[in-house]
Amino acid sequence: ATYHLSIFLEVLITFPSKQLSSTIKMNSSKDSFTPAQLELIQQLKQAVADQIQKSDDLTNFCNEHTYVRYMRARNWDLKKATAMLKTTLEWRLEYKPHLIKFEEVKIQATTGKLYIYPHADQFGRPIVLMRPRLENTKPSDNQIRYLIYCLEWASKLADDTGVGKMCWLLDFEGYSLRNAPPIRTSLHCNHILQNHYPERLGCAVCYHSPTLFSLTWKAVSPFIDPVTKGKIHFVSKGSKEKEEMNSRFQLDKMEVSFGGEVPDYLFNMEEYVVRTLAFEDEVKKSLDAVRLSIQLERSLTTTSGAEGASPPLLLECKSIDKEEQEAIDQAVAAAEAEEAQFVAEHSGELGVDKP
């Protein structure tokens, strides 16, 4: 049990990145950078440009915040950040985490052991809620895929709202060795979180964690980066419990089991399915928009140097069927003939020679 707890702690410790430079603000929508950092971001873009062109999906993934996160994760070391981002791009190209469908991993969500909470924390960050006691399946790749599905969802919510980070709420009520994840699964999760989702953790709240877990944390915390350590919070039973939860969550939207005001569990499978479908629809729209933008850019590039080339939007119009094209041609011919007749009849008034 001690080893499982150690592995879990390592996941929490390595999920965030190293300490940030003092010139960086935590709010991604209000970031400020030094000229040297801006140059490093541009160099990182150039370093992975060829790899990104392999897939529209990678283009969609690599937004402005992506480059910043990977630079921060490697403490603004360009070589290390480039290696890290390239590894992630290769992984995303092969694994395609953004294309995982809820139907594939639905069985993992039926008990509510891991899901995206319907409300954000006090700082607008999406909440990933985990209840180990509700484990309902044996270790498998499907478990990992569901974790990744939740990470993709939370990451999109974080980017869409501008906060850039997520909050993990870990409910340890009923936690035991029986429902603890196997070492192999823990190590696999650790690898994914550390290497492919850097700078995503805003905070992790360990609610009613076992005594052994808390003691292990106290033993290792002196050796952990101060910024990282500041993101891990333990909420124990006692007089300060509600105050600590209120400082991080909107208690009017939290369950009673967390000291909130919602009387029942908020997890409802039918409602959750509707939310997942909405998320997947947003992902599709985002990818479609990127692909359309890339196609338009390529069309502009292709036609801009061609003599007499039609504008891209007119080129698209030529895909209409034969009958519609004939009707358009006839209308154009009739308009031209009418114009020519008008000019012939009023050439004197217009001050032009008859055709």
Features:
single chain; 355 residues; 5-stranded mixed β-sheet; 5 strands; 7% strand; globular
Count of helix runs: 15
Helices and strands: which structural class?
A: alpha/beta
CA-to-CA gap between the ends? 97 Å
Count of DSSP E strands? 5
Shape: globular
Helix content, binned percent: 40-55%
Task: Write down the secondary-structure element order.
Answer: HHHHHHEEHEHEHHEHHHHH
Rounded mean pLDDT is: 82
Q: Radius of gyration over alpha carbons?
A: 28 Å
What's the oligomerization state? single chain
Beta-strand percentage range: 5-15%
Strand order of the largest sheet: 1-2-3-4-5
Q: Which blocks of ≥5 consecutive residues have pLDDT under 50?
A: 16-29, 309-320
Please give the largest β-sheet: 5 strands, mixed
Overall description:
The structure is a single chain. This protein is of the alpha/beta class and 355 residues long. It is built from 15 helices and five strands. The chain has a five-stranded mixed beta sheet. The longest helix has 35 residues, at 269-303.
How is this structure best summarized?
By secondary structure, the protein is an alpha/beta fold. The chain has 15 helices and 5 strands. Strands 1-2-3-4-5 form a 5-stranded mixed sheet.
Topology:
Layout: H1 2-14, H2 35-52, H3 56-61, H4 64-73, H5 78-95, H6 102-105, E1 114-116, E2 127-130, H7 141-161, E3 166-171, H8 183-196, E4 201-207, H9 211-220, H10 226-229, E5 232-235, H11 241-246, H12 269-303, H13 312-317, H14 322-345, H15 347-350
Parallel strand pairs: 2-3, 3-4, 4-5
Antiparallel strand pairs: 1-2
